[in-house]
Amino acid sequence: MTTENYEKIHKEVLGQTQDHQPGVEEKMTPAPIYDDTNYKGSEKMKGKVALVTGGDSGIGRAVSVAFAKEGANVAIVYLDEDEQEDADKTVKHIEYYGVRALKIKTDLSDDENCQHAVDQVIQEFGQLNILVNNAGKQFPTTDFLAITPDQLQETFSTNIYSMFYLTQAALPHMSNGDTIVNTSSVTAYRGSPDLIDYSATKGAITSFTRSLALNLIEKGIRVNAVAPGPIWTPLIPATFDKEKVEKHGDDTPIGRRGQPAENAPAFVFLASNDSSYMTGQTIHVDGGDFVGS
User: Fold this and answer.
1) According to the model, what pLDDT value does residue 193 have?
2) I want to staple 162 with a disulfide (CB 3.0 to 4.6 A). Which of 3, 108, 259, 274 is the partner?
3) Which CATH number does the domain housing residue 162 bear?
4) Structural contact between residues 50 and 134, judged by C-beta atoms closer than 8 angstroms
5) Residue 9: what pLDDT?
6) Cis preceding linkage at 260, omega within 30
7) Among the listed residues 62, 89, 91, the one whose alpha carbon sits nearest the alpha carbon of residue 74
8) Does residue 7 sit in helix, strand or coil?
9) pLDDT < 50 stretches in the chain
């Protein structure tokens, strides 16, 4: 896939909405690009097992497919029945690259569900080497006073509490050389006036990444993060109105939204031994939207 292709797809996106988060990829027009055919795997993860949350669609699907290309068996977690078709398609695409796949339907905001998800991975594959904490929700709210306790609880439970729960469940099965990659956001660094609670969780994820990296360094488990900018995922039409969807990504220096496939190589880098001298760091894949420390 070339830059010209991505720019062409950007111009084809018209206003569209969905009424349910995190959204369904099969309903999006045009479909997000999750498998860049120019990306060739080189067995960087051969023999590894990865668990990817929100892996049925969007960034999670692209990451899962890229991991499969690199030889990893992949378990994906998705939220509910509305995402079933997306999950089935992702599993099929993972298996296309000659590895095994497992789909797990559960709500990760519950700690027991997180434990059960990890148990299923161990039962199926016998090991867990890579954890990608990627699932998330966002609820645009212009008036800060309109952010309700229920909304705050749902946003934090999904976006950051689940990372604590799932990581605690996964760590007893991880050892020296294994990796954790968390999905942060450009909003953690530049802020967002309409996504204050969401941005706060992403800021927490950045600090969680840095602190957990220091905590696990003696065990040889590395922890890093990717901070995407405006990426064409189901969460966008499931979050914003038609006008904002159509203009999504226009204000980045590159001048367009990104595709999930453009995020995946950063996750591969951080999850593989290519980044063996990195921990506690964040890679920014945001079209130049954020420049800072």
Assistant:
1) 96
2) 108
3) 3.40.50.720
4) no
5) 67
6) no
7) 91
8) helix
9) none
User: Which residues carry out catalysis?
Assistant: 198
- Token pair, residue 192, equals 């967002």
Residue 20: predicted pLDDT: 76
Q: Which helix (H) or strand (E) holds 135?
A: none
> Which residue, chain included where needed, has tokens 């060739």?
40
Say what the pLDDT of residue 3 is: 66
123 falls within a domain:
yes
Residue 188: domain span: 46-285
- Average pLDDT of the residues of the chain: 93
Q: Do 121 and 128 contact (CB within 8 A), yes or no?
A: yes
> In which residue are the tokens 């990504």 written?
249
The answer to whether residue 20 is domain-embedded is no
Nearest to 89 by CA among 55, 41, 116, 133: 55
CA distance 248 to 108: 28
Q: Name the burial class of residue 93, with classes exposed (0-12), middle (13-18) and buried (19+) by CB atoms within 10 angstroms of its CB.
A: middle
